[in-house]
């Protein structure tokens, strides 16, 4: 008997679901409503630049992702561990370098004397890193519920350090600058950032879904498909009824609460940064600013920009744009350029906007109750980061859990 399954949604979780099903002898029909695979992990070429859909990096510290993806084959290169922190000023902006003292000891020690923050805050970062390194990933999510802000305060970090470092960094990761995200998610991300690198593939973030798709041997891809579910084993496609042993829904429901983000890509004659870090806005909270962080992907991967040009990518959290009454691309662009004039007053006039992206459902909005129930049995029909947690790792784990649950019930 031919074992046949269907997967709806060709994002990371859907593609990985197909791969796992194939390993257990299933032939798979993969349905995707858009014209491309990859979901949010998409890239396009525009005027010689590689533009990812939003600012994306891969975390090599994620254990499952590291076993699924071949980073070397994708030609991945790493950001420097740490960050640059800027205090914007129209006349004389100030920049500090906050290097990872565990992987860049000399630069880390020098950072203590930069006066960006107190040595006590830096010591607490190191202690937090060591504490979390001793905890298993699964056990991180068994800890008590509190917000990231409450957790950081409980660890003794100063308010100024939380606002100038954690808010722009993890606000940009979680797409909310209030640090209301459940602290279990913060601990998980911080732990994995500490044991790995942030890397970019040579051909853009879409290299990830492409690599997964290239490994599929018994999956038929159906793009531009509007399928409708009849039951857990039947669906309708182009008026035809199709039956399967199982149907996996690898997409977020329309009513799923989500977080949005603006990403503005600029072409610059040269990189505004002198090192391969991301740059955080220390005044995001204290100065009621707009930009969360800035990166220059072409500093990491020269393939992201034409020769003698640089790609500068700016992240603006959706809810921060709304606080400034900015609801369209032109108004966001204008405000971002005005703010960048306090970052790079001598360079900004030579930059040109390549693209203004608005990603409406960039991450799922997950409640503390969701994390309370994270380790319960999953629904075998559902996968996607909204069913586990909002990360590449979460998307992959969700697929693994869904397939495992199906196989257990099918045995």
Task: Give a structural overview.
The chain is an alpha+beta fold and 411 residues long. It folds into 2 domains: 4-41 and 206-251 and 374-410, FAD/NAD(P)-binding domain, CATH 3.50.50.60; 51-200 and 257-364, Polyamine Oxidase, Chain A, domain 2. Helices cover 33% and strands 23% of the residues. The protein is built from 14 helices and 19 strands. The strands form 5 sheets. Strands 8-7-16-17-18-15-19 form a 7-stranded mixed β-sheet, with helices on both faces. It has a 4-stranded parallel β-sheet with strand order 10-2-1-14, covered by helices on one side. Strands 5-9-6 form a 3-stranded antiparallel β-sheet, with no helix packed on it. Helix 1 runs parallel beside helix 9. The longest helix is centred in the C-terminal third of the chain and has 19 residues, at 392-410. The two termini are 15 Å apart. The mean pLDDT is 92.
What kind of sheet is the major sheet?
7 strands, mixed
How far from one another are the termini?
Answer: 15 Å
Tell me the helix content.
25-40%
> In percent terms, what proportion of residues is strand?
15-25%
- CATH class of the largest domain, named Alpha Beta
Give the helix tally: 14
CATH topology (fold) name of the largest domain: Polyamine Oxidase, Chain A, domain 2
What integer is the average pLDDT?
92
Question: What's the CATH architecture name of the largest domain?
Answer: Alpha-Beta Complex
Rg, Å, rounded: 22 Å
Structural class by secondary-structure content: alpha+beta
Low-confidence regions: none
Q: Give the neighbour order of strands across the main sheet.
A: 8-7-16-17-18-15-19
Total number of β-strand segments? Answer: 19
Overall 3D form: globular
Count up the domains. Answer: 2
